[in-house]
Amino acid sequence: MFVLALEGREHEGLYAVENSDGDRVLYLFKGEDDAERFAGLLEADDFPPLTVLEIEDEPTIKLCEENKYTYVIIDENDLVIPPRDNDLF
């Protein structure tokens, strides 16, 4: 799986979006191409450059669940469009 982080600041946090409840949601992409495409859409909308990081899915999901972080697995067949208000997790 793949996640996004600010280029040069990969150890400071991961890209997340805010849902309608005000919770931050971490996007876990199954496909690297999808993560890169999403990052490109964000950059086209004047968001700072992002880096695509490969992660191990099971430990990451376990960490999210243990810390009650909300996450979404983005399948290769999903169409995801960046929201206007972007944030880092």
Condensed summary:
The chain is of the alpha+beta class and 89 residues long. The protein is 26% helix and 31% strand.
How would you characterize the overall build of this protein?
This protein is α+β, with helices and mostly antiparallel strands. Strands 5-3-2-6 form a four-stranded mixed β-sheet. The chain has a two-stranded antiparallel ribbon with strand order 1-4. The model has no long low-confidence stretch (mean pLDDT 88). It has one domain. It is globular, with a radius of gyration of 12 Å. Strand 2 and strand 3 form a beta hairpin.
Radius of gyration: 12 Å
Report strand order across the widest sheet.
Answer: 5-3-2-6
Alpha-beta content class: alpha+beta
Number of E-state strands: 6
| Number of separate helices | 2
Shape, principal axes of CA atoms: globular
Portion of residues within helices:
25-40%
Point out poorly predicted stretches.
Answer: none
Averaged pLDDT, please? 88
Q: How many angstroms separate the termini?
A: 17 Å
The biggest sheet amounts to: 4 strands, mixed
Estimated share of beta-strand residues: 25-35%
Give, in order, the helices and strands: EEEHEHEE
Total of domains: 1
Question: What key phrases describe this protein's structure?
Answer:
89 residues; alpha+beta; four-stranded mixed sheet; two-stranded antiparallel sheet; 2 helices; globular
